[in-house]
Sequence to fold (724 residues):
Amino acid sequence: SALYKAWLQYAKVNDSEVCEVYKPLIQQIVVAGRIEGVLAAAVAELQEGIRSMLGFTPEVVQEPTGTSCLLLQVNKPEGAETAGAAGEGSGTVSKLAVQPGFDPLPMSETGPISQTSAQGKPWRVPKASAALEADGFTLLHVREGGENCLLLTGGSARGVMYGAFHLLRLISMGICPEGLNVRECPRNRLRMINQWDNADGSIERGYAGRSIFYRDGSMVTDLQRVKDYARILASTGINAISINNVNVHEVETHFITGELLLDVARVAAVFREYGIALFLSVNFAAPIAIGGLSTADPLDRGVQAWWKTAVQQIYTAIPDFGGFLVKADSEHRPGPFAYGRDHADGANMLAEALEPYGGLVIWRCFVYNCMQDWRDRRTDRARAAYDHFKPLDGKFRDNVILQIKNGPMDFQVREPVSPLFGALPHTNQVIEFQVAQEYTGQQRHLCYLVPQWKQVLDFDTYALGPETRVKDIVGGSRFPFPHSGVAAVSNIGDEENWTGHTLAQANLYGYGRLVWNPDLSAEAIADEWTRLTFGNHPAVVAGVTGMLMKSWPIYESYTAPLGVGWMVTPHTHYGPDVDGYEYSRWGTYHFADRDGIGVDRTKRSGTGYAAQYFSPNTEMFESLGTCPDELLLFFHHVPYSHVLHSGKTVIQHIYDTHFTGAEEAEGFVQSWEGLRDKIDDIRHAQVAGRLAKQAEHAKHWRDVINTYFYRKSGIPDEQGRTIY
Ligand code: BDP
Fold:
């Protein structure tokens, strides 16, 4: 169904001009070598996509019979055999195949896909590029001497596959191949998705049904849906996945051994076909839980030996196993602290076991005391990750990567960037986002998160002076990390449309695309997604893109104000409860009283969190005069009458944003209604239903928040609107 196909609709192309240009070009797909593995996935995708969009199935041949074709080849670095390419002298088009050892092609700008048709660029005889990274590709339109060909060259079979998906996107978006000269390389090496799926079939923070991986304690037997998931992930460039929750329970603890390991191997085989490496979340106390040892102390020789044997067994079953993801000493998970060891001891012990096989340990920095005393204003959860990990910089083995949440707290609608980025120059790191909308409307509200992630990736840490942006740090270009990249918690489940809210598919798509190239704009990604998902009608493209782009600010405006966070119902994290966490031990406070609100995190009078940044960020956040409005209450406790840079008082800002936010949510209902005749009934009705509920729920948020602050402050709304 259209719901299920997500952005791989491959809808019939109606533009006859586009059809006419592509048809002759891609009647034949030429692959000289053996077609297997990822290359087979790429060829199958091309055949199916072309059949569906253009109405014919290209034949796959070793040598072209005419003067037009789509040539796929793998470019191996200098000296190596050129694999999968047309062999020398085997036909006219084969001369187009790369020859090893020549200069790299000129780079074309990696831009939004709608601009990749580089019209009129002079064509040169394609030469091998030693610099073409494994996951990169070039896509060239070659028209010379009676030949008219598309030449797709990957740095590896994976590169060819990414190029195939790229070409299919171009066709879907109606972009002509004339003069095409694309060169793309992903900017992040590790492009990962984390499933928070449990063996019982539930999903921690899952908002789109049950797990597609597990049912009632076992792995599902029919892996078709998993395969389709691998496909949609690969289409955006994802190359790694962890398939079980970071909170590892009893059954999942056993995934690394016996029968369950064989099940994991079956899943790994499915992802392998799409170039995606499989990781497991592991239980740090596994040596006790399954090994029968009395300790999990990382410095204990018995424990070390146990993990080595376990890892050896894993690699016997899964030779290209990615490694472990670990949540330790956090929210009641076991970890090295129990033995008086630090997190470098813990991570390094696992890393040593994985090292001979090239495996990685991805160790999360989400470590804090979730039992802290709310009466003690000096403790600050925001400080915890930095306080724990900064002193360990440089102490981790080369195959350890720290996974750092984008903010210091927990995926709120607005948070500052984690001060750990840039503060660990000697430690591999990945940033962690949450595609699942735990705190941003749980896929019942529309909240396109790409603009938020972009702000984070663009943030300048000043770690090495100006222009030390988060995207360059995690992209590995500012510090020479052997491993780095991006990870995120997935938002999919077994609902027909994967994500519950059909428009929430844009977050998964956008995540992959942004990680591939963090310089793409949020609008360009929204535009691509909309075209691929709903077609190229200008009203649809403008309408849906517009809604997506407004959605995060709107969601923010009717929920927790000015960066203070939370105010959600405890445990479920859905819906307003202003004091829900105020007197609990989770460390998430707003400190609202009759006089004011906000958390003083300055070094002058507060928790000192602001000092964890580099200058001038510390000074910017520290001073009321320069702290950005949207983060004011994250860093400062101020009276309700405090005047923001916007000119409004804090209390009036709260009233105004909550009134307009709820109104704008209502506006989504109308905008979507206007697209009724241009979107299929099923998807239209599905989204319409969600938007109507969002509009209602936004009013509820508005009323709860406004009433709370009116009663606390006693200050009436300047405009005299109804507050209960
Ligand atoms: C929080 C979730 C919790 C997760 C935790 C984590 O509420 O369910 O286990 O993060 O990241 O956002 O480990």
About this structure: Residues 79-94, 98-130 have pLDDT under 50 and may be disordered. Residues 204-205, 246-247, 327, 331, 366, 410-411, 438 surround beta-D-glucopyranuronic acid (CB under 6 Å). The longest strand covers residues 137-144.
